[in-house]
TrEMBL record:
It is a multi-pass membrane protein. Residues 229-256 form a coiled coil. GO terms for molecular function: symporter activity. Keywords: Coiled coil, Membrane, Sugar transport, Symport, Transmembrane, Transmembrane helix, Transport. Belongs to the major facilitator superfamily. Sugar transporter (TC 2.A.1.1) family. This is Major facilitator superfamily (MFS) profile domain-containing protein. It comes from the Eukaryota. It is found in: Membrane. The lineage of its organism: Eukaryota, Viridiplantae, Streptophyta, Embryophyta, Tracheophyta.
Amino acid sequence: MEKAKDSTSHTTCSHPLLIPKLNKSPNSKYAFAPAMIASVASLLAGYNIGIMSGAQLFLKENLEITDVQIEILTGIVNVYSLAGSLTVGWTSDLIGRRNTLLLTSVIYFVGPLITCVANNYFWLMVGRFVTGIAIGYMVVARVYVAEVSPAATRGFLTALPEVAVNAGLLFGYVSNFAFADLPVQLSWRLMLALGSVPAIFLGVGTFVMPESPRWLVMKGQLGKAREILTQISGSLEEAEAQLVEIKEKAGISKENNQEVMLMQKHHHERYTWRELILKPTSAIRRIVITVLALQFVEQASGIGTVVLYSPQIFEKAGLRSNRDLLGAAVVVGLTKTVLIFVPMLLSDRVGRRSLLISSMTGMAASLIMLGLGLQIVNNFMTAPTWIVAACIMAVLCYVGFFSAGLGPITMAYSSETIPLKLRAQGMGLAIAVNRVVCGIVTMTFISLCEAISIAYTFYLYAMIIGFAFVFVYFCLPETRGKSLEEIEVLFARKENGGERR
């Protein structure tokens, strides 16, 4: 049991990205640079998922693999990510959020290189397995950003990883389009190899990032935590108030005029899982159900199929050439990326709940429109231009509404509602559910379309969103403007009959 080493210095900070400027109102700029660096992990996840959208066209031709093998290879990375998402909580609690990001950069560097030099299906699967571990580890970026963000701007900053995911998807689509005219045996290899480059920037960037102040508190390093909180909040008084609140949640008390860490049973790994899953309080139970439900809905809404199979969807709608298919996919990625700025600008003003409700409404309407368009296409030998345009517009509206609400808010809401002592493991569990559902959806899309038709597949996704709308409307409390330590109290209050809003 290690005693905390409290520091008496409150006006200096050894981290180059946090420049002291005290006695001012909270300003996100002190947390912005570290949040941006951490978000590169999410950018890499987006790239390594999205790149398969176009690469699969050339892989299939070059290595002569079947549609079923392509379907599995494309979606299995989400299942492989379980190896990362279920261990990232233990790793980030043991070595810290920052060092876990460094480890993530190494895995991201190795995975795509293995895949791009593969000459058979086995080595393709090995490369995707390694990449999948890194994708599972991306949860630490979301935890880190949530823990370094001041409450007033947390909605903006916690949206950065989601922006990065979408930027990564867009870069993947652009790479597909840029390398489409190269020889088939070279094009997909370059597409995949390019995914190792940002991993270098992430690895280097971790050396200038501050550690999460909340993790430092959990380890009893109160002096360092106070320094970082002071720079984030802009006020020594505000930092002290936050420190007291975080210490209480982390299980630290004052004894014999010295700060000491009470290593209570919930800080042990098995007790953390017991408190999270087996014997949770009513507030924790409600948080876990809410978080896992949101993670399920995000992927069961079908977003993974549009991300990974947009060329096939546009082919069903009437487009034919590879360049047209990949060009349309670039527009999808661009729309998905641009609209992500809506929740960044509005979540701290109008609230998470309102954005989720409007997002789900638009997504369901867009999927119904897409299903109708694809049904009509079947009545023509050559699809009229207006139907092709309507289907493309429906896809763009769908991904736009997703980016404007459900996508970023799901992750932001999850990372801010899980209490400090359970956050790393809780977010690992949340990402595990997210990735498993995504894997199931993407690995069954082609088969489901053959069984019930592509139109009815999208109707099914719309129905799932409809049920989710009811859950969000009646069950989700608003978290806008509340500190991470206040939110557990909010859920407990709601459990006892408090207000939804």
